[in-house]
Design a protein that fits this description.
Elements lengths: L1 E8 L3 H15 L1 E5 L2 E4 L10 E9 L4 H14 L16 E7 L4 E3 L2 E3 L3 H4 L1 H10 L12 H11 L5 E3 L6
Antiparallel strand pairs: 1-4, 1-5, 2-4, 3-4, 3-8, 6-7
Helix pairs in contact: 4-5
């Protein structure tokens, strides 16, 4: 199945995202990786900008098992969660946001993530790798969702001319 993840970092983002992509490639079948975008923080403005990207995985893992694998990668890369600052700075954030054809709750995981429709930092990188993929509940393509999210954004994502190498 086609699974799509969103990655972000605003603490040493070049290093942490390169490590995250390398670890994803080591553990999972990575089909595509989007360019990197600089985005404004959402929900907590008192922090540096984020670097965001998306990746497509080919997997037969159940969504909740894949979600747990992504959390294990975050932990292995030093991610520490601060309950007092849920939207605060982070070394790496890796979220399963969309699985082609699936919609619903899978344990604590909601698919597709509401962020796919709402936030440019998720929608734009996704659209870069799968513009014609349709959202499983609305039927709208990722390209259209990305354009709408950018139109709503206070500051649109900025394409970064960086290569990530671990």
């Amino acid at each position: 199945m086609r699974a799509f993840i969103s990655l972000g970092s605003n603490i040493e983002p070049r290093r942490h995202l390169a490590l995250a992509v390398a670890e994803l490639r080591r553990r999972l079948a990575v089909v595509a990786v989007s360019p990197v975008y600089r985005t404004a923080p959402v929900g907590d403005d008192d922090q540096p900008d984020f670097w965001n990207l998306a990746a497509e995985l080919a997997t037969e893992e159940a969504p909740l098992a894949l979600h747990r694998e992504l959390r294990a990668i975050e932990t292995a890369l030093g991610r520490r969660r601060d309950p007092a600052r849920r939207c605060g700075p982070r070394s790496v954030d890796i979220d399963l946001v969309l699985v082609a054809g699936l919609a619903g709750r899978f344990g604590e995981l909601e698919l597709p993530s509401p962020l796919v429709e709402r936030e440019a930092f998720v929608a734009v990188p996704l659209a870069a790798i799968a513009p014609e993929l349709r959202h499983p509940t609305t039927g709208v393509t990722l390209a259209v969702l990305a354009r709408a999210a950018v139109a709503r954004a206070a500051r649109p994502p900025e394409l970064m001319p960086v290569e990530l190498t671990a």
